[in-house]
Design brief:
Layout (H helix, E strand, L loop, with lengths): L12 E5 L4 H12 L3 E6 L8 E5 L5 H11 L5 E4 L10 H18 L8 E5 L11 H8 L4 H10 L6 H23 L2 E5 L8
Parallel strand pairs: 1-2, 1-4, 2-3, 4-5, 5-6
Helix pairs in contact: 2-3, 3-5, 3-6, 4-6
Amino acid sequence: MSGIDQFRYDGKRAVVVGGATGMGAATADLLIDLGAEVVIMDRAVVERDGTTFIQVDLSDQASIDRAVAECGGPIDALFSCAGVADGTPGLPRINFIGHRHFIDTMFAAELMPPGGSISMISSAGGLAWEKHLDRLNRYLDTPDFDTAVQWVADNPGTDDYMWSKQAICAYVAREAFPMLRDRAVRINAILPVREFVE
């Protein structure tokens, strides 16, 4: 087995949060081609052959809780693809806090078995996160959805796109080893960067 076939998802169930458009939609299409049972979650309704759709609003904790409960398990792979641009109401919740709450809720319900994986999109906005690690760690120390929302409200300059993506990078760096050690789950962040050649 070589090429893309070595990454097949036959017999696996994959959840794509933010699968209506963009990288999330492309991820869902690829997972279908690779044999996965695909669950797409998004605020916008998605009708795609070969998938199950569950509506979720990442800015609303109760909506996330309902979506996770409706999904059930197993979740063999989670792709956290949803994200919005600066100026969108609820950006900190949609781009990071909601994703983290989804992961925490999924783990609390024991829906991801050992060998599972989580992929997040940090984008180029996450660059230079290490320079802000002390402050990012204080943000990540918030124990739940509501305290994270309050932390952003109390800390000017942390409600924008770049900060939310830096938070993803710091979260993945901080959680990668504990998740692997304690749950046998891998977590990664992809940071797509375009190279410009003159």
